[in-house]
Amino acid sequence: MNLNYHNPVHSVCGAGSLSQLPRLLAGRKAALVTFPEARALGLVKRVEQVLGAPVACVIDQVQPNPDVAELAATYETFWREHADVEVIVAVGGGSAIDTAKALMVGTVSGRFQELIDLLATGAAFTPHAVKTLIAVPTTAGTGSEVTPWATIWDRENQKKYSLHLPQTWPSAALIDPELMLSLPASVTLQSGLDALSHALESIWNVNANPISDAFAISAVTDILEVLPRLMRELGSLELRGRMALAALKAGMAFSNTKTALAHSISYEMTLRHGLPHGIACSFPLPLVLRRAIGRDARRDAVLARALGEPLETAPERLLAFLHSLGVRTEFADYGVSDTEATQMIAHALTGARGKNFIGSDA
Q: Which among 23, 75, 307, 335 is placed 20 to 30 Å from 215, CA to CA?
């Protein structure tokens, strides 16, 4: 078997990692992209203190699940007024990093609609201009800091666009658990379950390989142990650090495999029912695991290493794990009828992510 694994992101992980930012910037002009509460939490001030100077501009109105209606004005203002910025520093969760990835890709016209039109074709393209991205996640789960993908939502038209180019890999990721200490319980849970989904989705995946498996197995076992403890001790820097490392490993796993059926289902649940991403991609994990078991003996062996023996009882154990964290695991719990759920799963299997699932022919 030929093994191919590629991840070009320079990752720095551990408490105090933010201090590496000046070295990575190397004097280049930077813009900070972050979430609205970042100023009140002192994150903007902290970044500027680390740098020893103000950043060129601060974009701090990033909303969850970046939408075309919100991004257009931000994108066009950024490229019109800050074209000389060389580096975008994204500080926040997946939405902040995804927004930064959208901003880093410049179009000929400087209009955001041109980017959307290019994404709508589904074809690869070469950006007119590109900024460098340094990702500083404040959640343990997104994986966006070590992947080239960003999701752009169009809620009005019930669509989503996937931005993924060779140019949209971050150049560096600073994973500092000190920045995660203020994370509320709900976001801690949602991001942690997103990481669990990333790791499992990379195992029941047609693109899996031994390196992605190694990252995924380690991530799953760590998350199953650490996340329940962290939910009881949100202020523990040790547990925050362990969860951040587990999420990084999950990101390294699916950076090469992409996600699969659970994520394909999640997009519909978020668009139609407004379910937060971390819950939307994790509540169907036991269902997807049941479909995965028995499809491929080699994948079964990896799943058993991640979830423990006997594999036949793993779906029930995973179900109990989610229930212990207060996560409901039935479509009906979210107002989805049996008929709609069946249709949603069938549709998800035909999507780009669904086709990565080892049971997509079922």
A: 23
